[in-house]
């Protein structure tokens, strides 16, 4: 059964074209959840901010996330699962789901920096082109997420680092969480390669933990590491990201499960891996991830 029926889709397109004020009304009328964490003290979000920096590829399909109706259908399926606490997304996606009535009683984290376009020469100089701290507060969102890719050989890291520190401080001033995603990279044959070794991940954690004038409202978003060194490097609450989907969903789930057992880890923030599973069954992929989180906590 399609959740985004032809009538709902046409109505969304009509509103977009004829009633831009509906977006602000939808923000204002959203019923906010009182607590960030679930009753078990966990957080499970689906992520949909990749398209805004031109990262559309999933598996062998370079345009998988370019079909907006398909993306929204998949998000509606995921958000319908009661174990999913909410969404991490850019303004366009958040607003479309608001107009579709899908974000009441859900946590909503706004994605802030998407200027480091995938494959661009300036990719590491990741400018803030999405939400800013004030808009996150004004629109009643529950937090702001920022990507911090650390490349020691690329000076583009410096302005991104400074901008993230400023955003952490500004969000904290409003008592709103900052979700920082610190990822160590290196350039190999001109391509960016994620460094997954313990030392690099732990170093990235310590850098991100010290951003801003206070860490009181900072959370960290990390790939599932092979050991606990990175997880032991901070007292800040952490969530595990899904990363690039592998050809083995069971292996992804097992990796998340091991990491979720760490005391500092509070949950999952997963996008493409759950929204575009190899067998196409989004509901089953989300349910499997929810069970892994429940079993770990």
Describe the strand arrangement of the main beta sheet, using strand numbers.
1-2-3-4-5-7-8-9
pLDDT < 50 stretches: none
Fill in the CATH topology: TIM Barrel
For the record, the CATH class is: Alpha Beta
Residue share in β-strands: 15-25%
Shape: globular
**Integer tally of domains:** 1
CATH superfamily annotation: Aldolase class I
Radius of gyration: 18 Å
Largest sheet: 8 strands, parallel, barrel
Order of helices and strands: HHEHEHEHEHEEHEEHEHH
Roughly what is the average pLDDT, rounded to an integer?
96
Q: Termini separation (Å)?
A: 32 Å
Give the class from helix and strand content and strand pairing: alpha/beta
Task: Jot down its keywords.
TIM Barrel, 8-stranded parallel beta barrel, 297 residues, alpha/beta, 37% helix
């Amino acid at each position: 059964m399609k959740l985004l029926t032809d009538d709902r889709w046409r109505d969304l397109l009509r509103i977009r074209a004829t009633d831009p004020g509906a977006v602000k009304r939808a923000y204002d009328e959203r019923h906010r959840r009182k607590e960030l964490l679930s009753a078990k003290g966990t957080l499970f979000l689906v992520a949909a901010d990749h398209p805004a920096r031109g990262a559309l590829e999933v598996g062998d399909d370079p345009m998988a996330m370019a079909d907006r109706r398909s993306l929204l259908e998949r998000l509606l399926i995921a958000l319908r699962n009661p174990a999913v606490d909410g969404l991490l997304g850019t303004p366009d996606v958040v607003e479309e789901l608001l107009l579709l009535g899908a974000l009441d009683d859900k946590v909503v984290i706004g994605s802030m920096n998407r200027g480091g376009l995938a494959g661009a020469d300036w990719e590491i100089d990741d400018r803030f082109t999405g939400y800013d701290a004030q808009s996150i507060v004004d629109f009643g969102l529950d937090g702001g997420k920022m990507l911090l890719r650390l490349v020691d050989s690329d000076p583009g890291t410096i302005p991104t680092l400074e901008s993230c520190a400023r955003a952490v401080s500004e969000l904290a001033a409003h008592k709103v969480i900052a979700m920082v995603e610190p990822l160590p990279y290196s350039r190999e044959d001109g391509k960016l390669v994620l460094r997954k070794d313990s030392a690099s991940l732990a170093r990235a954690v310590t850098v991100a933990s010290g951003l801003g004038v206070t860490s009181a409202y900072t959370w960290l978003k990390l790939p599932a590491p092979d050991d606990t060194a990175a997880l032991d490097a901070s007292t800040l609450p952490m969530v595990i990201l899904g990363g690039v989907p592998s050809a083995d969903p069971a292996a992804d789930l097992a990796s998340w499960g091991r990491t979720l057992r760490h005391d500092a880890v509070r949950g999952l923030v997963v996008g493409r891996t759950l929204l575009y599973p190899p067998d196409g069954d989004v509901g089953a992929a989300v349910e499997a991830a929810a069970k892994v989180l429940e079993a770990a906590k």
